[in-house]
Design brief:
It is built from one helix and seven strands. By secondary structure, the protein is mainly beta. A five-stranded mixed beta barrel has the order 2-3-4-7-6. A two-stranded parallel ribbon has the order 1-5. It comes from Pantoea rodasii.
């Protein structure tokens, strides 16, 4: 077997090991809500959407939130919090891009809103550092 073929086979076999890296690390506590805006720079018209507005947001609307993934609820479901409240987010492993975040790490999540009122949740398509 030549070197190129062997390398291609090894690359295909090893890519599955990297698919499960990253996610949420439990056991840490996020900072108090009143401290979340400390150090935030920018104008009010370019600020992210607060969680409190998600409950009345239009179905399928795309939003970006900044805050903390507080805890894993189950599967790909997490509780997300900012200074205005909490919301449930559905974040597949691929959205973490191999990075691991704890409740102390501020993150920026983007995705589509589904549900109304207390059943509103966010299907995340992207997780980044702010």
């Amino acid at each position: 077997m030549n070197k190129a073929s062997w390398f291609a086979v090894m690359l295909m076999l090893s890519s599955g090991a990297y698919a499960e890296q990253g996610g949420f690390e439990q056991g840490k506590t996020p900072p108090p809500q009143q401290k979340e805006d400390a150090g935030y720079k920018g104008s009010e018209d370019t600020a992210e959407t607060p969680v409190s507005l998600i409950k009345d947001f239009r179905q399928g609307g795309y939003v970006t939130l900044e805050g903390y993934i507080v805890k894993k609820v189950g599967g790909n479901t997490y509780q997300f919090r900012d200074s205005s409240g909490t919301v449930i987010i559905d974040a597949p492993a691929s959205t973490f891009k191999g990075k691991t975040y704890s409740a102390e790490d501020k993150v920026r999540v983007s995705g589509k809103v589904f549900g109304k009122g207390e059943s509103a949740h966010l299907k995340v398509s992207r997780i980044d550092e702010p």
